[in-house]
Amino acid sequence: MTVSVLVPSSLTREAEDKREATRKLGYVARAATIFRVDRLLVYPDRDGETGRFDGGFVNTVLRYAATPPYLRNEVWGMRDELEYAGVLPPLRATTQTGSESNGSGSTRQGIVTEVGPDQRVRVNCGMQHPISLNVPPKMAVSEGERVTIRISSRRPVRAKLVDEPLPGLSVERTDLSAALGREDAGVCIASSRYGEELTVGRLETLAGRVESDGTTVAFGAPERGLPDILGIEVSSTDDGGGRVEPSDLGFDLWLNTVPNQGSKVVRTEEALFATLAPLSLRA
Q1: CATH architecture for segment(s) 94-162
Q2: Which segments of the chain belong to CATH 2.40.50.140?
Q3: I need a labelling partner for 48 at 20 to 30 A (CA). Which of 54, 116, 138, 262 fits?
Q4: How many whole angstroms separate alpha carbon 139 and alpha carbon 199?
Q5: What is the CA radius of gyration of the chain?
């Protein structure tokens, strides 16, 4: 089961300065981490970008936030987009905490600092010093590459390099249509105040589908929801509101996870928490 979240490149369009924009992105990354999102995907909304904090800024800050703290300096160095990286809330991702047990341990990211002879490399994976590891057969690594380490014990250090995808949250830039068309996209949901209201009965059915097939959930930007971004007309309803019906855009469902909202605007980072929390419930 794969969980993907789509956010627009215009995500920080209302931020007054870089510090506020960085903090907002930090809460987006934190919501994705709390609810075990596998992929955080940034899709283009160039008409909504203000020019100050475009898709490149959004992507860089989110990727930095998703990078384990012990690798950030080595991977990113000094970059203008990361001027206020200090305001990012810690993610404390469970895939990055290592293991104190003598069992199978946990996986974490490392970065290759030196490639030596006899299929051995030195890897920085958050220990006191880089550790020397054997490279598995048929696996090629290069200096500066990020790799997956399985740690079974810290004292003494017992670890091995494994040929597996990097653990933790992945951040990518992609077109919305491409993300919805992936084989593992699962149930594709558009989060919008103009969607069907999430009820207990609907959640009971939806939770089972999400648990078995996974899900991809798309969100809009501040003062620019998905209908605006996608150019979809909102039809009027009898109660004076609006409604968007599922279309051929690739969504299975338009869903309103904050029915009868008390604030005129629900911020994107708030919508992530409101939407991912019920969808993470087991059927």
Answers
A1: Beta Barrel (2.40)
A2: 94-162
A3: 262
A4: 49
A5: 21
In angstroms, rounded to a whole number, what is the distance separating the alpha carbons of residues 214 and 231? 27
Are 151 and 106 contacting, i.e. CB atoms less than 8 angstroms apart? yes
**CA 108, CA 115: separation in Å to the nearest integer?**
19
pLDDT tens per residue, range 137-192: 889 899 999 999 998 887 788 899 999 888 889 999 999 999 999 999 999 999 99
pLDDT, residue 181, reads: 93
pLDDT tens for each residue of 100-110: 433 456 788 99
User: Could you give the CA distance from residue 32 to residue 219 in angstroms, rounded to a whole number?
Assistant: 13
Pairing type for strands 157-162 and 146-154 reads antiparallel
Helix, coil or strand: residue 107: strand
The secondary element (H helix, E strand) that includes residue 183 is none
CATH 3.40.1280.10 given to domain 3-92+168-279: yes
The confidence score (pLDDT) of residue 102 equals 38
Amino acid in the structure at residue 232: I
- Looking at the chain, which residues constitute the CATH 3.40.1280.10 domain(s)? 3-92+168-279
CB count, 10 Å around CB of 44?
17
Strand 157-162 and strand 3-8: pairing? unpaired
CA-CA distance, 95 to 60, in Å (whole number)? 21
pLDDT tens sequence across 31-50: 999 999 999 999 999 999 88
The structure tokens 């409604």 sit at: 243
69-117 pLDDT, tens per residue? 999 998 998 899 999 999 999 998 876 544 443 345 678 899 999 998 8
Percent with pLDDT over 90 in the chain: 64
Q: What is the pLDDT of residue 238?
A: 60
- Two tokens at 6? 């789509």
